[in-house]
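Checked the freezer inventory, then went back to the computational side. Two predictions to log before the end of the day. The first one is the construct we discussed on Monday; recording sequence and tokens without edits.
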Amino acid sequence: MFESDFITTALILLIVVRLAVFMLIVPIHESAHGLMAHWFGDDTAKDAGRLTLNPFAHLDIAGFVLMLFLGVGWAKPVPVNPSKFKKRRLGMAMVSLAGPLSNLIAAFLGAAVCAVIVSVSSASDYTVLELKEGMSAAQIAAMILYVFVEINVSLAVFNLIPLPPLDGFNILRSFMPVKFDMWVFKNYRAINTAFIILLILSTHIYELQLPYLYARGIAETLIWLSVSWIPSLFGF
């Protein structure tokens, strides 16, 4: 039977795509941080060899495991020296924003390619994350791109949460007083541990996920709306 010969469950498909996202997109995400820092006058990331697409240079074990099983995670933070920025607060905010923005750009590109494939081939049912007998190559490709978009949007929204060690928190820090920075530095390990515990609890307490899911849903809708004009190019 088809089910015994091919991958028929969404779980394995998701893990494979999540691994691909880590290997391809996470290095872009982290390099985007370093490149933005470079543009603002700080070459710390460049000197540390972090402006690279080698995924192992950015590997964080905990973030990688969570990425595989939950679809959200993080990499090893890119080293940044804000004292080298000409405009410190703006530099920190832009460096932190660069990573999630790279994910949203990747999501848009993935959605655009998916829209082209669906328009040209009239593929359908690609949003159902399960391989079925008789699916065309176009349907499978569209399904993988659909998951690719979902994961990139998830990473962008997740990393914009204003909690350490995520980018959203560093954006928040850019507009906070020095005393706040000192308090964060003093209590960073405890704050980080509390965040991981909260993340684990959210897998069992649905209500904790609601703000994130709501924001992710809006972002996904906007991404797909941004490519809704593509079918008209092919007469649909």
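The second is the one RB wanted added to the comparison set:
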Amino acid sequence: MSPENTFVVVGGGLAAGKAVEALRQHGYDGRLVVVADEPEKPYIRPPLSKGYLLGKEARDSLYVHPDGWYAEHDVELLLGTTARALDPAGREVELDGGRRLPYTKLLLATGSSPRRLPVPGAEQDNVLYLRRVGDSDRLKAAFTAGARIVVIGAGWIGMETAAAARLAGAEVTVVEHSELPLLNVLGREAAEVFAALHTEHGVVLHANAQVERITGADGRADGVLLADGTHLPADAVVVGVGAAPNVRLAEEAGLDVRNGVVTDAHLRTSVADVYAAGDVANAHHPFLDRHIRVEHWANALNQPDTAAQGMLGKDAVYDRLPYFYTDQYDLGMEYTGWTEPGGYDRVVFRGDRAAREFIAFWMSGNRVLAGMNVNVWDVVEPIKALITSRSDVDAARLADPDVPLDSVAS
């Protein structure tokens, strides 16, 4: 092992685990340290709202690497350790107790944290959030047959936990401030599919709703009071109202922070020899020609390889299209590409929306910006090709399931 270099990775999720793997694969043989504030070795978070929460995946399957991997690859794990401050001038990270860890290169993989619900009663014991493995364990314990579960927020976490609770036999009510679940993410046409899916599975949806407070006594919630006076009884309340990037360390150290830690396409931050990857990185995307921050598994999986190459002086850029997936009841979905509310003209559907077997394409003029395949498989690559080619497509052929996707360009 080369003694003169110390590379430090701050974080304990998938991005941290893949970063140290990539550094070793690309030939780094210096000291390599992971600083993570959780007691667990780096683990993957999507199963916490999917297979692990449903009891289909064992705890061991969450970990990025098996027990012996870190010792075998000379990776030091400082678990249960908080990185309190970053000193770029002195090239040091201050840890709990004032200990200082020097670094030659540093990767911030600090992820994001659930946004807290700013209403009275939200601090009670059985008001639950989902980010860490212990959170998933608490949800699993709460999701029992007949339990009354109120989910506040109808984004991906809210809808996945609602599905898990229903599959466990709980009575589930979802409270959402918008008109439809996932409306801001998917637009009306596709959001209606998910609303119908959950309604058919017995979930009660309260749309256009405002939470006044969470009721309860002796530190335990017993319901949710809405602004219109409706009281929803609850044995547990799940809050899924978005996530905020964990930027304190970067912000206090003077890094450029705007909706995450700002990086270039090489995942370099505004400070020399400091990189960022995963949920926390607001990275410039060469294809989209803009900065984007993506809170999904694929970025945490793939960005660390680019960051590792940059830390080793190589010239890699991160230009993969955003990708995410969800599993709810019997619906499986993959989404590829990037759109924002108001950033597209229309949505073209191919297949049977009512049967929930279709592909949706978000269009700007005659070009595909993003595609979502629902219970239709092995189409991610042709969807990517339609997006990255920037070709005009014939909408009628795009909507026709009998026309191969690689033949729809006009």
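For RB: Residues 2-113+243-311 form a domain with the FAD/NAD(P)-binding domain fold (CATH 3.50.50.60). The chain has three domains: 2-113+243-311, 127-239, 330-407. Let me know if you want it refolded.
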